[in-house]
Automatic annotation (TrEMBL):
The active site is at residue 49. The keyword NADP applies. InterPro entries: AKR, Aldo/ket_reductase_CS, NAD(P)_OxRdtase_dom_sf, NADP_OxRdtase_dom. SUPFAM superfamilies: NAD(P)-linked oxidoreductase. Residues 19-259 form the NADP-dependent oxidoreductase domain. It comes from Actinopolyspora erythraea. This is Aldo/keto reductase. It comes from the Bacteria. The record marks 74 as: Lowers pKa of active site Tyr. The keyword NADP applies. PROSITE patterns: ALDOKETO_REDUCTASE_1 (PS00798), ALDOKETO_REDUCTASE_3 (PS00063).
Amino acid sequence: QVSSLTLNDGNSIPPIGLGVFQIPDERTADVVGTAVEAGYRLIDTAAVYGNELGVGKGLADSGVAREEISVVTKVWNDDQGYDETLRAFETSAGLLGLEYVDLYLIHWPRPRLDRYVATWRALEKLKADGRVGSIGVSNFGREEITRLLDECDVPPAVNQIELHPGLPRTELREFHAQHGIATQAWSPLGRGQGFLEHPAITEIARDHGRTPAQVVLRWHSQLGVVPLPKSVSPTRLRGNLDIFGFQLSGAEMDRLTEIGTDFRVGPDPALFFDVS
Ligand code: A2P
């Protein structure tokens, strides 16, 4: 693998990771074990995925030293608020079987609920107490991030968003760069089947003798984005990690970015969970 990414708080994270959304808890330990064996050093889960126990078990069984792995988890919407978040963190850490978590994120902003600033204060406390290494957000937009930057002490280290060539998020990525916020991508493959058959992707893959998934993950990497592809297949897990031995040209990068047609596979943060 290539070098890790340095965050705005001085910590570093691997340049690619495994996302475990929708992997059943009882299957997760095996998948995580295979991934760690293949070389993954970043695992991305969330309280709402219901598989933190499996992630912790997979890591414990892997025999890899704790400090070599970056574990990411997220506080769920129902647990937003200062005290609620501190409690939710203890539950997550308990299920994971970990003393500390490398990166803790607010899963969705829910602006109309207006609790994400209090939630952020709890994340700042967890960081100050050494329970989490870095703190960040997920599915946040420019407005919500600006509010945290204006009202809080610690700026987010990461915003984890839906991002792939169907939804390249160019403006938000530029905003992140201006504020030293790292971009992580969920569903970096546009959920795989169908999307990966787009002609721009398959043609570039053929030209490089690579798989469509490798081309898309390489596109992320060259943009400076940390992709978190999900797979339960050992072959695809290994293939998705093998993206550092080739280079896309500027024209190929542009061609992939221009696929972007507002193709969303997940909920739109502007609408999701905001009606309550
Ligand atoms: P599987 O778990 O059977 O490998 P995303 O991370 O964008 O949400 O995409 C995940 C989806 O893409 C899953 O359905 C996964 O299926 C599939 N996938 C993961 N890696 C590859 C790959 N290298 N080629 C094709 N499909 C893939």
